Amino acid sequence: MAQDPARYRPKPYPPPEFPPRRLPAFARTPPAIFPPILGLMGLVTALRPGLDRWGLPQEAADLAAGLVLPLWAFALCSYTLKLTLRISVLQDDLKVMPSRAALAAGTMGGMVAAGHLGAFAPRLGVGLLAVMLVLHAALAILTVRTLLTLPPEARAVNPGWHMTFVGVIVAAPAAASFGLVDLARVLLFGTLPLAIGIWGASLLQLACRTPPAPLRPMLAIHLAPASLFAITADLLGLHLVASVFAWLVLVIALALFAALRWIAVSGFSALWSAFTFPLSAAATALMLHGGALGWAGQGLLVVVLVANPWIAWRVLKLWPGGQLAARTNAAEA
Question: What residues form the membrane-spanning segments (predicted)?
Answer without folding.
Answer: 32-51, 63-81, 101-121, 127-148, 160-180, 186-207, 219-238, 244-263, 295-313
